[in-house]
């Protein structure tokens, strides 16, 4: 059985050779609102703010609604720059680290937020939440609210949506094959089921698992598997443990499962690709973010009503779902912090959820952040298949205690230190190569252990 909760906090020191978050923006196409000024307007003041955000489906819906609702109500125009996940992280890190002030607001996760706050790159938001009573800060789910706070206890970002992870599966396919999904499956059971449903329909694979390099792509689901198999990136004394038997067993299990019964081109498949595969009926199961359910149950989805949802599979732990949030942060150097807050208050507010429900359907509501969402009759009716499973997954996530051994800092699918963005990405490249068949898991983890040991040199002996 797992060890129970310990009072951990984020690492209080700065390492001798701190590796900065990636600072070079990856080339990508910048998508801007057609009705708004383009890149030439970035950094301007007045009644315009500049928002840098990830290109997830619910963000794109927000972009469609902004001009006709937020701008019409407030007179504040919004210039959006929209990029894929890996690219947007690089660009945000560059702009916020330099305090260039090019962007007023950016989508941050609960990984970057405490780090950026410690570096004084973000505006604390408590002054706004105290004055903005309609925002109702106490309505934000406690695990999400805590994850977006700094060491000083102040809130530095507000969630657009929150998520954990769970297993999604085709109920109709399972019924046709005479299979039953356990209410709380283990990973060995999932592997057996993947083998059974692989090829059950023309072109259908057993499961989709991320294989795309990136600490926020492949590493997120893989680390949740490592945790429940009994592994960890670092032990309580900051010794790297990627070559431990449990880490090796979990990684080999993951790689073997996706190679045998996973999607085609798995080494280049991330969240977006798996979502598309599930929506198009190309896979029978998908382990990933709870946020994906909204798209699967959307009005245009080919699999609407055909998906079942169960908790993240486990092995040695009671739960294994991760905790994540895409959230809005205001750059410290912003010249428009008050207007930026008005945008955040709108985009993360209760009324925005109702707007999305009415415009795009209640299954599309960016949920996982507010307790009140799960009391809305319209949402409960439309999201009945996955809403409560999602809420329980978020409530049960244990970022301070995700495995079977003490950890040196918090984090379920990541390690909450600045160096992890670079380390996780490099390790993901090695494991993705194993998924592609270019090297063995043993070789991938031997290289990865060496990378992690470089981090250990900075932190080792400075444990809690």
Automatic annotation (TrEMBL):
Residues 1-37 form the signal peptide. Keywords: Signal. Coiled coil: none annotated. The keyword Transferase does not apply. The keyword Signal applies. Gene3D superfamilies: Periplasmic binding protein-like II. This is Sugar ABC transporter substrate-binding protein. It comes from Streptomyces tubbatahanensis. The lineage of its organism: Bacteria, Bacillati, Actinomycetota, Actinomycetes, Kitasatosporales.
